[in-house]
Amino acid sequence: MQNQITIEQLNSALSSLRTLRSSVSHVFETLSNGLRADHGEEGKDKLLLELQELLNNVNVNLRELDQTVNNLPIPSAPFNLGNTTFLSQETTQDRQALYTQLVNSYKWTDKVHEYSSYAHTLLSQNSLKRSYINSGSTKRRGKLQSNHNVAPAQVDNVINTIDRSFNDMKITISRPFASNAVVQINLSHVLKAVVAFKGMLMEWVMVKGYGETLDLWTESRHHVFRKVTENAHAAMLHFYSPTLPDLAVRSFMTWLHSYINLFSEPCKRCNCHLHHTSMLPPAWRDFRTLEPFHDECKQ
Ligand SMILES: [Zn+2]
């Protein structure tokens, strides 16, 4: 085929490019070395002569590259997309532009592909991505991916065990959405909470006052319980553990249980019940020590 570039032509073009580059770097090398001992008495003139000769070489090599490149056939289109090239021979006027459009969309999808693979790499490193573990290794993935897909009986078992270990906190399980559990927690006469599970993973939590009606989506009308809800979301993310999902649930419930003294225990930092500006009780509990703090007072 006339339009096809042969390997030999490409090779000779590349090698003349290489020669040109090496002769150019030779010029700069000599120039940066400056006057040398072997230039002798009339050092300056000798150096100038040497540079002139090197520059001549560059000129010759450049002309050679020019020639070999000129010998290369010009590709008829930026890409050869197989039989679609024939679209450019279309006689109907409004279809003539089709091939260019096709090439453009090809480039575009190529870019989309490239960017999405970058995005995939970045997202798979995101530790807040909780439901699926993309660690790259399929072996590990197979083991961990089942966090959101465990048998209901297993979830019940974990939650009932937690329920039995606190006598002032009542936990009840319901399943209004098929297999996933929705858990209601009554913490003495202090608060109620509802937690939506996806398998063994806690997905959503809502905290309300003791006297309020509880559902997953309406916020409490009291500022303090809206604050506790906010902090409970932080706790849910903090305790999340892909390898030990039942421990995550247990840690979260223990943390939530520490709100039993929400209205009776003062802040560990300022020793006040109500914060002097927000006028709220200590609505934060330390993840480790479970000590009460005002949001404004936590470290
Ligand atoms: Zn405080």
UniProtKB/TrEMBL annotation:
Please indicate which superkingdom the organism of origin belongs to.
Eukaryota
Indicate the transmembrane segments per the record.
none
Q: Which Pfam families match?
A: Med27
MF terms in GO: transcription coactivator activity
Protein location = Nucleus
GO cellular component annotations of the record: mediator complex
UniProt KW keywords? Nucleus, Transcription, Transcription regulation
The record's Gene Ontology biological-process terms are: regulation of transcription by RNA polymerase II
The family line of this record is: Belongs to the Mediator complex subunit 27 family.
User: What is the name attached to this protein's record?
Assistant: Mediator of RNA polymerase II transcription subunit 27
What lineage is on file? Eukaryota, Metazoa, Ecdysozoa, Arthropoda, Hexapoda
Gene transcribed to yield this protein: MED27
